[in-house]
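hiii, so i know i said id send this last week but things got crazy w the move. better late than never?? heres the sequnce for the chain we talked about at the cafe, plus the structure i predicted for it. fair warning i was half asleep when i ran it
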Amino acid sequence: MSLCSGAVDSTNSAGDVSGYVVQAANLTVHGDFVVPGEAPVPDAAAGTWDARLPAEVESLLRAQVAAATELPYRLPGARRPSLATVYVRQDLGAGTEEQPEQPRETPVLDGRSGLVEVVPRPVTRPSVRPPTHTVREALDRDDHLIVVGGPGQGKSTLSRRLSAEAAGRWFTTTDEPLTEPVIPIRVSATELAARLHLPFTQSLADSVHNEYGAYLATPLAPSALHHRVAGCRWLLLVDGLDEVADAGDRDRLVAVLAAWSAPGSPYRVILTTRPLEGAALAPLQRSGATRYELQPFDEAALTAFAHSWFTDTPDSAPRFLRQIRDAYLGEMVTVPLLATIAAIIFTEHGDRPLPDNKYELYEAYLRYLRTTKSPQFDSIRDSLLEHLGRVRLESDTPLVEAAKTWVTTHLSPTGEWEEALLAYLTSVGPLTRPRQGGNLRFLHHSFAEHLAATADARQLPTPFTPPHDAFRRLLHAARDEERGHHARAVLLHYCRLNPTEADPVLVHLHEGDATAHLLAARLLAGHIPATAPPVDAFLDTARAWAMTTGLGGRRILSQVSRASHHPLLVSWLTGLSRDVAAPWPSRIEAATALATRLRGEQASEAVELLRMVVNDPSAQVTDRLAAAEALCDCGTDEQATAECGLRAILVHPGADEVDVRNAAVVLATFGSASRARAVEVLVTVIESPLASDAARFVAAAGLARFDTDSHQ
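okay and structure toks below
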């Protein structure tokens, strides 16, 4: 899978593995560890791609190729695209070692009956974006991978495509997806986690049988999984760790995978997951797995996506992209799943504009699905779907069992209702049933999250009453940065279901402390349907925060700058960017929002401000780096200025080792000459007898992000 940065391959020679267009996503990894992993050691005993395999192994390989044409998550309304080339790049900053959790203060009630929590200062991480590597480069470099990505970014697509391509290589002469001949075996984390009471090879074999069913020509015996096959290791792809509802089961699965990735094991392990809080992945990282993170669509990829999608009506692609810009959806549709849903809704709506927020986009798609009518089940459709969303989030109970139990509790069904119910659910909801007799699955986990948030929001009372126990607990949970995603979604859904309550929610948070202000800013970023007066009042407070230099003020400003639904946001940001009394980080954030997200009439002025900062040798190095990164997102016309600024940072006397490392990592994305310069600077630091051990360590870690030779 060779590729050029930013390119989309629309003629995938490995064959057309179907699914929705999220498979066209660019995939990248932003390094998230301090010490780079070792490159796989060539194995003299390894087999070859033309080795003869046992019949049961061939059966498994063919089953994975066949299953990949059906799964994952094929959205009704989506076209069957050819797959794009996939990118990966390493994350910066987190480290493979276990990160200790910071102590939390005991929550107390404030004078307004609100729960108060002292939130620890978050660990500041650089936002620099290292160069991309192909999936093959990552697989040839590291034995074991952890691929992290947000909802809808293509984790399942990657695992299925990789298993299908590796399996298909045994039957064709196409390019191999990695150098080492391997036997792929892909299973879902939920299947494997449900069987950890069994010996590992038995649990794996049972998971394969349940996953692929009739696709298998012959059963796979557990004994076949004890050792290599024809000298080849197994490439074990475990998809969706985050979808295992029980935290204890997740932790145990990670520990088991870590044990089976030890030196001498017949397995190479690739685990996909959403970001998880705490040290859940630490055992696998300590065993040598390297963390990768999926990259969302950039502007070039979104354009390629649009032209790929609307091949039958070429004039639709520019109209679709124009509607994306008009609705300020650019940042949201960097997630491939949401880009796909937006394309479906654009086609369905005709000349009507796209929704300008995630809630309405999901709701529009759910309405699109509701075409089938059933006198027996229509009255309980929404309640049942929302219940199944909660079940999926809160437990690993099979959805078929949950649906039948709920219906018998709330209805008195007659006749052969069970199969009729399952057929109805797959017709009107974001659900699929891969085979007859199989379990129900959500088309994507994010649909379960959306429905569960709606279900929880419906249970909240009206009017909004902050002292009410349900609201106190919800507002407390929503403040937590990592664990508060669902609670914040419930608040947004509550305000969407009860629009008149949006103003009281925003006013209450505005009257609170700094963490309440940050929560209010996050709700504004999610387009809470509040009216202009309370939003304008909060913007006045946000302006006061922007005039400070603390981390809290920058976080509030970063969220408020995404409230693109508010008609006065552009003038508010423009005023802040022009305010010479404001701290430069605030002015740069305002200019970045105007230049990269809103892109209206003030964009050119914002770009000029960013250029000025990049070219100003007296500016703080961190400010110049932030402005250079923003210019990288303003299109190719601004990249020369960004590149020049990054080169200047490398030799700036005020730049510390982290500044130099970050500038070098970003500079390396600009081509061979810039990459060579970045390597030269970091190598000079590493070899300098005057550099401290800390500076040499930071430089070496940065060099490892983009210079493959540094691993040798």
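btw DSSP finds 29 helices and twelve strands in the chain. thought thatd interest u
miss u guys!!
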